[in-house]
Structure formats: C-alpha cells, structure tokens
Amino acid sequence: MSRRVLVTGGRSGLGAALVRQLRAAGDRVLVTDLADRGPSVEVGDDYLRLDVRNLDDWLRAREWVEQRWGGLDLLVNNAGVAAGGRIDVADVEEWQRVLDVNLLGVARGCHVFVPVMKRQRSGHIVNVASMAGLVYPPNMSSYNAAKAGVVALSETLLHELEPFGIAVTVVCPSFFRTNLSGSLRGRDEEAQASARRLIDGSRRSPEDVARQVVAAVQHRRFLLITDRMGRAAYLGKRFARPMYHRVMRTVSRSFARRTRR
Q1: Which candidate, 26, 67, 22, places its Cα nearest to that of 48?
Q2: Torsion over CA of 251, 257, 258 and 261, rounded to 10 degrees?
C-alpha cells in the first residue's frame, strides 16, 4: 500500500537518497527543502519550500498534505546543519542556528503533524539525529547538544504516542559522505576542518544509510545505529565507561596539540 510521506531536506544527501528509495517502493513523497525551485525529476515532482525554522512553512506543509492526500503516514525530519566548535571559540549565534535547525526544526515538525496522525490513529515519525546524540566527542558542543535533544525528544514521543498507534524511529548515523560539510560555518575554523575531513573521508554513502532507515521503518524499530563503529562507541560508553573516557580525552588532547588553543 502506498504511503503518504514528507521528507525535509529532501533535495540532497540523505534526504534525496531516502526520497529515491521511498518513491521506488511506490510511496507518494512530498519533498521539502529551502530552495524555491523544485528538485529534479529523479527526486520527484511534488515539492514545497520549507524552512524548518519557520512555523508558518510547517503549517503550509500540513495544509498541502491535508488538501491533497487527506493525511500523512510518514514524517521524516531529516533537515540539518553540521557544526564544529569549541565552547570558547564558537559564538552564541552559532549555537542559536544549530539548535534552531537541528533540534527545534524537528520539534516543530512533530508539533505540527502529530495532531494529523492522532486523528488517523496511525503514523510513523523518523527523526534523524546522529551518533553525536549518543556519544559526545570534544569540540562539537552545540551539535552534540542539539542531537542529544533529538534523541531525548524521540524517546519521549515513542512512549507518548504509542497509545495513538504512532511509531517513532530515531536515526543515529556516524559520519557518511554527504554535502552536509558544506553547511559548516562559524568562528572555529580548526574544528570545522576536522569535521569536514571526517565527513568527506567516510566510506559510507547516503544510499547506505537510507536503506537502513527504510528497513527500520518497515520493522518499526526505535533506535537505528547505522554502523559497527557507532555501535562500538555506544556500547563502550554504556558498559566500559573508563575506556570510553580515555578515548575521548585522547582525541581532545590530540586536537589541542595541533591547534595550540
């Protein structure tokens, strides 16, 4: 049965990979992103400009969905920006931008579309977080805080929405190749360069992650950690915390020696 799907940040990266796979499976997908013009035919014809920081844009998206489809089966909160910055270098404006997009953007989407799903007594929400929502590397404080908030929000909604037949999946990938590195900006150039190397140097592609997300939705799985390294870090933090702390301190000291700040 064809699902009605909305994907934020759907013009590129993981969002575009998800759109392609969902459409190939026969789903109807509304692609949303910041650009005024729609995406290529490869990504899909139904397109709406949506800035996840703007509640009015979200309300217009809900109106679009209700008028054309009568409801929504799957909301994918994928839009996000990358960030790297030490606490004494990154400024407050950078924090506001990262939180407004990566955390509040997700919260707005849930706030606007949960009433639709409650009326249906069905639906599924996918919130794209990061391994930075589960383990917290140094020099990424705003990004870590935002993604941890997405994980916390998702777990809250997992239980809050279960009585209404609404499922929740939170996706926590490690670094994978995407144009997300292009969203890096701010005062801490050294931290951003480090993050860019990790993103651009990954062997994993958006398609690899998208396949796992689609499977997790199919099985109504809550937590999706997409790779072996991420699972090892998560389990190490939970069950071998002294070792986890040693690794994080080693990373921090190495960065401090290179930058001398």
Answers
A1: 67
A2: 100
Out of 47, 136, 143, 244, pick the active-site residue: 143
pLDDT band at 245 (very low <50, low <70, confident <90, very high): confident
Of residues 100, 101, 87, the one with CA closest to residue 136 = 87
Cβ(127)–Cβ(156) under 8 Å? no
> 26 and 2 in contact (C-beta within 8 Å)?
yes
For residue 67, what are the contacts with CB-CB under 8 A and spacing of at least 6? none
Of the candidates 36, 25, 35, 31, which has an alpha carbon nearest to the alpha carbon of residue 10? Answer: 31
Q: What pLDDT does 83 receive?
A: 84
CB 55 within 8 A of CB 100: no
Q: Annotated catalytic, 143?
A: yes
Residue 218 class from Cβ within 10 Å (0-12 exposed, 13-18 middle, 19+ buried)?
A: exposed
Spatial contact of 192 and 255, defined as CB atoms under 8 Å apart: no
Quick: pLDDT tens for 94-122.
999 999 999 999 999 999 999 999 999 99
pTM of the model: 0.86
